[in-house]
Amino acid sequence: MIDSPATSPSPQPEPSPADVRRWRRYLADEQAEAIVYRDLAARRTGEERAILLALADAEGRHEAHWRERLGSRLKSEPRVDLRTRMLGFLARRFGSVFTLALMQRAESRTPYEGDADATDTMAADERIHEEVVRGLAARGRQRISGTFRAAVFGANDGLVSNLALVLGVGATGVAPQTVLFTGVAGLLAGALSMAAGEYVSVHSQRELLAGAAPNAEANRAVADLDVDANELALVYRARGMEEDEALVRAAAVLGGHERIGGVDQGVDDHDVVGTGRNAALSSFCFFAVGAVIPVLPWLIGLSGLPAVLLAAALVGVALLGTGTVIGLLSGASLVPRALRQLLIGYGAAAVTYVLGLLFGASVGG
User: H or E stretch including 89?
Assistant: First the structure.
């Protein structure tokens, strides 16, 4: 019996050179991402390690898909791009939240949804991978959020406030030495003020959290509670539980299976806030580092307009850097965050510079 043409398999069209190059790029990306996940897993234990290894295995399945598509056209292993090599380096050396944040962005930029050569399953995998990495990165963000907040705010305040200060004073026409001394004084005063403010702020937050935490002494009263009245359920209702859920939780405590505690939010608030000492030290150091940058032109002997332009340029680069770091750690777009930092900083400095010009003109007149 002769098969009809309708049942004969249609031959696959020969891929174009552009298709082959694209497949090779996808293959390289999948290989590299699997390596990064394994490098991160090597620095983790328990559940996090298992999750990262599972992600690496999934990237391996995607890699196999592109190897099959390339077939005999894969004459040599594709070259891994610089970005992915840097990710692998960071994972091996630090294994930090920065690497996870970068991987989150990499997973979010998957091209598979619009590529007919990738399967729907692969596109769905990449979207789910983004959420998995987001969850892993969130743990790291929570651990560093208190100190990180103090560091970013300190650096940004040092950059903006001292640039505004030296430009405002310099615009009045005073001697370069006066601008330099003003900048150094602003650095020291600002760094000490930021450190003291962060220390008090964090300690106050921790005291508020401690005041809201369940009293451990309450567990001693459990044995004497009226089981029928079940006053214990009111504790959990006051902390946000529905009545039925509160009764179940109270029964578990009365039965000796649990101890009295608050509603589990999955986050240690004290870890999120950080410690007063670390926050103060971060604020002081990063404010000082940020504040010294606008003063550098006067430190090397420049004055007048060249000093102003160089200070503005140096601070602009630094502001773009702090905005980029915020974007990286938040998993958000980098350019809007960087430009936001730049515009806010330049806006504040421009206002004080104009006021300094006006003040200098009025005094000179």
Answer: helix 82-93
Torsion of CA 15, 20, 23, 28, to 10 degrees: 160
pLDDT tens for residues 253-269? 766 545 555 444 444 44
d(CA 191, CA 311): 19
- Across 58-90, b (16+ Cβ under 10 Å) vs e yields bbeebbebbeebbeeebeeebeeeeebeebbeb
Four-residue CA torsion sign, 336, 341, 345, 348:
positive
Residues 237-258 as b/e (b if ≥16 CB within 10 A, e otherwise) read beeebeeeebbebbeebbeeee
Distance CA 105, CA 107 (A): 5
Q: To which residue do tokens 């999120």 refer?
A: 272
pTM, to two decimals: 0.58
CA 255/CA 111 separation, integer angstroms: 54
How far is it, in rounded angstroms, from Cα 231 to Cα 253? 12
Residue 240 in contact with residue 160, Cβ under 8 Å?
no
d(CA 282, CA 155): 9
Residue with tokens 């980029």: 324
144-190 pLDDT per residue, tens: 655 666 677 788 889 999 999 998 888 888 888 999 999 999 999 98
